[in-house]
Design brief:
Blueprint lengths: L4 H23 L1 H11 L1 H6 L4 H27 L5 H16 L4 H21 L4 H15 L9
Helix pairs in contact: 1-2, 2-4, 5-6, 5-7, 6-7
Length: 151
Amino acid sequence: MTYPAYRLFLIACGLVVAAGLWLFIEKTTLGAVVRAGMDDEEMVRGIGINIPLVFTGMFAFGAGLAALGGVLGAPLLGLFPGADFEIVLLAFVVVTVGGLGSIAGAFWGALLVGLLDNFGNAWLPQLSLFTIFVPMLVVLAVRPKGLMGRA
């Protein structure tokens, strides 16, 4: 059995980006500032940090990561009318399943939703949209904050 080299490259890129994001958020001073700003913005402003500038920089960084994902994924996905709806729908379900404010939750949510979506499309193509929402419904019924969501 052969597996396309480009898909292996995408998996490696995804793992590197995920590890880099986790290290950035959990192990750097800027990551601590971002986490603190999310929890108590007023206190972070009180110690003299320009938190709107930090959040603007993080938004720009996230937009750059989205652009990287678009460039890397374009050869596989292509463009067509309605592609934006599919991507936004999957992102919404991943964030809901993983839980807000959790990089690890987003990782595990993406893995779970991606696998269930692909297996659902292969085994039950007529219920493909349903297989996206099943994990979200189950997780929200059991853990309303998501798999690793914060309070």
